[in-house]
Amino acid sequence: MVKVNGVEVDAAGKTVSEYIATTEYDSKRIAVERNGDIVFKSQYAVTVLEDDDRLEIVSFVGGG
Q1: Which pTM does this prediction carry?
Q2: How many domains does the chain have?
Q3: Residue 64: what pLDDT?
Q4: Position 32 in a domain
Q5: What does the DSSP 8-state code read for residue 12?
Q6: With 29 labelled, which of 13, 18, 40, 42 sits at a CA distance of 20 to 30 A?
Q7: Contacts 24+ apart (CB under 8 A), 40-48
Q8: Does residue 35 fall inside a structural domain?
Q9: Per-residue pLDDT tens for 12-62?
């Protein structure tokens, strides 16, 4: 199990890209932190989530 924004989800074994594809996040408008480290967008497809990982996903919202 992986904890995403404080909620446990069954995402172990998936890449960050694979996990995001199962959500409503817009991958162009988010930042991802894994276990306290920023995951660069170029690494989403190769970063495999493991049991006990902690992800924080933040969406950017435009406005004015």
Answers
A1: 0.90
A2: 1
A3: 62
A4: yes
A5: T
A6: 13
A7: 43/16, 44/15, 44/16, 44/17, 44/20, 45/15, 45/16, 45/17, 46/15, 47/15, 47/16, 48/13, 48/14, 48/15
A8: yes
A9: 999 999 999 999 999 889 999 999 999 999 999 999 999 999 999 999 877
